[in-house]
Specification:
Helices cover 36% and strands 28% of the residues. By secondary structure, it is of the alpha/beta class. It has one domain: P-loop containing nucleotide triphosphate hydrolases (Rossmann fold, 3-Layer(aba) Sandwich), CATH 3.40.50.300. The longest helix is centred in the C-terminal third of the chain and has 18 residues. The radius of gyration is 18 Å and the shape is globular. It binds adenosine-5'-diphosphate and magnesium ion.
């Protein structure tokens, strides 16, 4: 049987940063692929290039060499409009430090991707429907009682739930999460992992998460290790 076309994959990615005259290689031929509905963790020490790799896979940055493919089609070389569209419609992003807007309430923060996706006119026309969509996803992440709260009024775990709701409101196919539990205590971190696992299992969301925390990685389906710019080992999570 032919293996299924991966949902999202990176092929032979190289990426270096420049510091003055110095070229600092970070990724040196990274291959990684996620099947539809998989939950993969990328582990590696701080500075190993995990964020760099996730940014390349999510089209937040471009590789020097190599390709990123979505369902078999190359996407990293699309014109910027095409990359913007994929970033907005296919990917949801979650970061360690939440990146919520402090002046907006929880529900307004969650609505921001829909504002970005639609014209002002279309957003205004559909605003009741969008609000309902945002409220539903906020309920799904367990924050129904916090709709009108500002980020400063939320705990760390609640902030990350809010950021996950914002990542999901536009119904992405792939969630890219960069150290989503990095600012949380172990207990709250494992609650966030429970949420991510249930989104993966119940809704079939493909998730690629990077973390330096092996205990957290063990809660996903598959672990890949990034060392010295390459994917070096593959382990089945317990
Ligand atoms: P990780 O997420 O695994 O901690 P990063 O991908 O953030 O690693 O960084 C990998 C290496 O690349 C580090 O040495 C970091 O200092 C360097 N680096 C990351 N981003 C930049 C940048 N924009 N400019 C220059 N160097 C960078
Ligand atoms: Mg990082």
């Amino acid at each position: 049987m032919k293996p299924a076309v991966p949902h999202l994959c990176a092929v032979a990615l190289d990426k270096a940063y420049r510091k003055g005259q110095l070229r600092i290689p970070v990724l040196r031929g990274v291959d990684i692929s996620a099947q539809e509905g998989e939950f993969i963790s990328i582990v590696g020490q701080s500075g190993s290039g995990k964020s760099t790799l996730l940014h390349l896979m999510g089209l937040l940055d471009g590789p020097d060499v190599g390709e990123v493919r979505l369902k078999g089609d190359r996407i990293d070389n699309l014109p910027s409009g095409g990359r913007d569209r994929i970033r907005n419609q296919v990917f949801g992003f979650v970061f360690q430090s939440y990146h919520l807007l402090p002046e907006l309430s929880l529900v307004e923060n969650v609505l921001t991707p829909l504002l970005i996706r639609h014209s002002m006119f279309s957003y205004w026309k559909h605003r009741a429907e969008f609000r309902e969509q945002a409220t539903e996803i906020i309920e799904r992440v367990g924050l129904a009682h916090r709709l009108r709260h500002r980020p400063s009024e939320l705990s760390g775990g609640e902030l990350q739930r809010a950021a996950i709701a914002r990542a999901l409101v536009a119904d992405p196919e792939v969630l890219l999460a960069d150290e989503p539990t990095g600012n949380l205590d172990a207990h709250t971190g494992s609650e966030i992992m429970d949420l991510l696992c249930s989104l993966n299992e119940d809704e079939g969301l493909t998730i690629i998460m990077v973390t330096h925390d092996e205990k957290i990685a063990n809660l996903s389906q598959r672990i890949v290790r990034l060392t010295e710019g390459r994917i070096q080992e593959l382990e089945e999570a317990a």
